[in-house]
Design a protein that fits this description.
The protein is of the alpha/beta class. The protein is built from 19 helices and 14 strands. One of its GO terms (molecular function) is glycosyltransferase activity.
């Protein structure tokens, strides 16, 4: 836990920002969004409850004085203190854990997920859940549930599977023990584990829970577990947990503000009431991202982001190889850092570029001090992700007046409109064809870039985003005006995309 950072404002709204793997300990699009939100609301008192890896991550953002506290919840650090329950208490906790596991594996038992989760949360607050999950009884309970008739038993889970799955759940449930808010607003900036303290605060103290999804957390867990090195019984258990956690969060949130309309499809399917969902687009300051100026000499494609499998740089590199077959002087410049643990993926991408014969033309530039330099470095800015929300790099590049080629994921098509080219994900040929189309037509690039900047100015400004969330915080904080699904807040799109209030989202 970091020390208090500032002093409270009298009568200021109080917001607890719930994050996972992002602000204020990491860079990236969601962290940028959090920094902009917090920095734009000096009249709101913020506490940040950050789910992190080890708890030793440094702060990488300068925090303003109205961020009063930063508390960390390490998932993979040393085991938190506590003692295992005994006697009747141990029996009751084992029974609740059995109901919890049954909900993850048996569709007929899913209604028991919420009650069991909150029973586990009480044990976590008393320091008993972690020691219980690290003991033999938890493994025995899981093997018993796995051995009930059903598809998991048919997969013949092993004792090693049970130990692995129990360990994963013990770490994933650590946020249940976090000291969440007792008043104000709990604002989860993603679904999943970050929302756990908010769910507990809503259950115990009636604290309104605001959920903002940029990407779709559940979809990204599905994508990640496809290649995870676990056997199917472990994957089935963990994905069952993430699915039911998403559904519980959607049902219990006072308000859901996805960053694009694509996300609302997942949220509605997960049980969210359509009238409780309001789309609030990300925004940038057009003055901070002015036109980038002259293009580089020669055909250059640029990309900006974190070097991560979800950004699918392999497809981009394969597409670039096809571009270079037509334009031998073309270059690809990749700007962005590599998260800890992602070094192997970066080297795999380097090896792919070399294998295709273009290693010298694909340059990993690393983090750049001024991200605008990354957009100015290319004649066309590329985005190759297989999952996105409403990507900052895209609207920043648009604000800089650069033509873009992007994959059709998340809110990309909503952002681009007709000011850039959108192609299917994981399709190198389509991406290469779009890039060649723009690289060969300077006039079209110029027209698209101008239209893209105008679109940002008209629809996706930072001021509009901040004003919208300020109004949402006031609405949820004021007991006299409790959060009512569909209530009017300036700058927010209601269900179905119709405009509400004086400003479009």
């Amino acid at each position: 836990m970091h020390p208090p950072h500032g002093a409270r404002h009298r009568d200021a709204p109080r917001v607890t920002l719930l994050t996972e793997g992002t602000y204020p300990h990491s860079h990236g699009g969601v962290s940028v969004w959090c920094d902009q939100l917090v920095g734009g609301m000096s009249n709101v008192d913020f506490t940040v409850l950050a789910v992190t890896g080890t708890g030793r991550e440094p702060l990488v953002w300068d925090l303003p004085p109205h961020v009063l506290h930063v508390r960390t919840v390490p998932l993979w650090g040393p085991a938190p203190p506590g003692r295992a329950p005994r006697g009747r208490e141990r029996h009751r906790l084992a029974a609740a854990y059995e109901r919890f596991l049954a909900a993850l594996l048996d569709p007929r038992a899913e209604d028991g997920f919420g009650p069991a989760l909150y029973r586990l949360a009480h044990a976590a607050a008393d320091g008993r859940l972690g020691p219980f999950l690290r003991g033999d009884r938890a493994i025995t309970v899981l093997t018993s549930v796995w051995n009930r008739p059903g598809p998991v038993r048919e997969a013949r889970p092993t004792l090693h599977d049970a130990v692995t799955a129990t360990g994963l759940l013990e770490h994933a449930l650590r946020p249940l023990a976090a000291p969440g808010p007792r008043d104000g607003v709990a604002h989860a900036v993603s679904g999943g584990l970050a929302a756990l303290p908010g769910l507990v605060a809503r259950e115990r103290y009636g604290v309104p829970l605001l959920l903002t999804e940029h990407g779709v957390y559940l979809r990204e867990r599905y994508l990640g577990y496809r290649t995870a090195a676990y056997r199917w019984p472990v994957k089935a258990l963990m994905l069952g947990f993430f699915r039911l956690l998403a559904e519980e969060t959607y049902r219990r949130a006072s308000l859901i503000t996805p960053g694009n309309r694509y996300n609302r499809l997942w949220e509605e399917r997960g049980g969210a009431a359509p009238e409780a969902i309001r789309t609030v687009y990300n925004g940038v300051d057009p003055a901070a991202f002015p036109p980038a100026g002259p293009e580089p000499g020669g055909p250059v494609l640029s990309w900006a982001g974190r070097v991560d499998p979800i950004k699918d740089l392999e497809t981009l590199i394969r597409a670039f190889a096809l571009v270079r077959a037509e334009l031998p002087t073309a270059r690809l410049r990749l700007f962005g850092g590599t998260p800890r643990g992602g070094e192997a993926y970066r080297e795999r991408c380097r090896a792919l570029a070399a294998e295709l014969g273009h290693g010298e033309a694909v340059v990993f530039e690393g983090r750049v001090e001024d991200i605008r330099d990354a957009y100015a470095a290319g004649s066309v800015v590329m985005l190759s992700s297989i999952s996105e929300g409403f990507p900052f790099t895209l609207i920043e590049a648009m604000s800089c007046g650069r033509a873009t080629v992007s994959t059709d994921v998340g809110g990309v098509r909503e952002a681009v409109g007709d000011t850039g080219l959108v192609v299917p994900p994981r399709d190198p040929a389509a991406m290469a064809a779009a890039a060649l189309e723009l690289l060969r037509d300077a006039e079209r690039r110029r027209a698209m870039g101008e239209a893209a900047r105008l679109r940002v100015i008209e629809q996706f400004t930072l001021r509009r985003t901040i004003d919208t969330f300020r109004a949402v915080y006031r609405e949820l904080s004021d007991p006299a005006t409790p959060a009512a699904p569909g209530a009017r807040v300036p700058g927010v799109r209601a269900a179905g995309g119709t405009r509400v209030g004086s400003a479009a989202g």
